[in-house]
Amino acid sequence: MRVLLIEDDPMFGTAVVRGLRQNGMTVDWTRDGQDGYVALQRAEHAIALLDVGLPGMTGFDILKATRRNKTLPVLVITARDQVEDMVAGLDLGADDYIVKPFELRALLARIRAIMRRVHDRSNSLMSSKEITLDPSTYLATFRGIESTLSAREFSVMYALMERPGTILSRSQIESRIYGWSDEVQSNAVDVVIHGLRKRYGKDIIRNIRGAGWMVTKSGS
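Above: the chain sequence. Below: its structure as tokens.
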């Protein structure tokens, strides 16, 4: 999952980026409100983590401007614990609100909860045919056997299983697993998918010649 962090506190931001990356997420970080707003318009991310007190453009201003034409999930992270601020953020279109300081596991749980709502799932498990992916543990269960995926394998499977039945091209998968500072390796996606298909079978990840790859919907 590719996450956009809009946060001006260097120490706090560094800790969040490190924690999210350790949990298999790709993170892009902007430290200025205006830069964050521009990044949101690119629609490259699955979710944005938005601080309120930002230089250049406040988090509330970003919400106002973004919600006019964007539906990207936004989790507000801030030191403001007043009920009025929480209500204002939610009324402006934030999907959830978490107050600093917080434990990383609480942040991860809120991200998973938002993504469940976005994709209309009753729980965090993602299923397709005979395979189930648990984003909270990196565990893939195939025909009753559990295995732990590497960070890159998890990122590719997550991208494919977000929307079963939808074909994703190589560039679309790359946009979900590489951040701004990452060097995109020309055949990395192909290598990962080849390994996953070898492990789970070609019916789990289908190659659509000339278009890309897809996982089929459960029951298909």
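The first strand starts at residue 2 and ends at 6.
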